Amino acid sequence: MTIELDPVVVAVIAAMGVATYVTKAGGLWLLGRVDLSPRVESGLEILPGAIIVSILTPELIGGTLATWIAAGVVLVIAWRTESITLSLGTGVVVILALRAVL
Amino acid sequence: MGGETTSQQGDEADPESTTFSFAGARKGFLTCVPVAVGVAGYGVLFGVLARQAGLTVAESTLMSATVVAGAAQVIAIGVWDQPIPVAVVVGTVFIVNLRYLLMGASLRPWFEDLSPLQAYGSVFVMADENWALTMQELRSGNPAGAFLLGSGIAIWVFWILATVLGAVAGGVIDDPATYGLDFMLTAVFVTIAVGLWEGRSDLVPWLVAAGVAVVTAQLLGGQWYILFGGLAGAGVEMIRYDD
What we know:
heterodimer; A: 102 residues; mainly alpha; flat; B: 243 residues; 0% strand
C-alpha cells in the first residue's frame, strides 16, 4: 500500500496543526501573565459545562425525534449508572432501532 | 511557567501541588477509553468525509494526528476544494478552535505547577472531551496533572485509528447514518455533560449558555455559537458571583 501525500496538502495540514496548537497552548500561556480575581475564576470554573452545553444544544435542536429520544436515554443511563460505556452503547442501539422504526 | 499563584478558589483550593505521574496518566487513559470509543465513532465519520473531499488515506490520517480537533477538522473538510482555499481553511480552523484559549486558561490553576514541557506537551492532545474529563477530575480533588495527557493519548490513538478506518471505508460507506455514527457526537457530549453537572447552581449559567448558543447558531454562521455560549455562561456566573 503506497502512502500518497501531496506536498501542498501536507503544508496546509501543518498550518492547520500550528493554528490549532496556538489556541490550545495560548490560553495556558496568556494566563501566566495575568492575575485572576476569584470572580473571574468562578467564570472559568463554569466554562466546561457551558461549552459542552453550547456544543450540544444546537445539535439537539436541529435533530430528529429519534435523536431526542436516544439522547434522553443516554442522559438517563449516564445519570443512573455513571458508566460511559453503558450510556454510549445503549444510545447507539436505541438510535439504530428508532431509525428503523420512526 | 512562573508568575504568582492565583488566589483562593473556594472549596477547590488545594494545598497540594499538581502531580505529573504515570499513575495520573494511566487513570486519565483508562477513564477516557469509553469516551475515546465514542469519539472514534465520529472519527470514522471524519475519515469518510475527508476521503469524499479528495484527501488520501495518508493525508486524512496526518490531519487527525496533527490537528487533533474533531469539529475543526470536519469543518475544514467542508470547505476543502481544488485548489485548496488555504486562508479559509486555516482561518476557519483557528476560529473554530478559539474556545481552546479559554479551556487552556481554565487549566492554569493546576498546570502552573507543572514544567513547561509537561504542560505544553499535554495540551497538544487536548480535545473537548478529555479537557472536560480532566476538569472534572482536578476539581474532584485529585491534582493529577498527567490526567490530561493520558486521556489525550486515548483520544489521539482512537481518533487516528478511526480516521484510517473511515478513510479506507470511505469508498464503501455511502451514509454514515446507517451505523449511527453521526449520533455519536451528541451521545458523547450528553454523557460528558452529565459528568460535569454539579447541582442547582449550574442551572442558570448552563441555560444561558444553551440559549445564547442556539440564538448565535441561528444568527451567525460557523461555529461562533460555541464560543459565545461558553462566554455567556461564564459571564452570567461572574455576574452572580457572591463575595
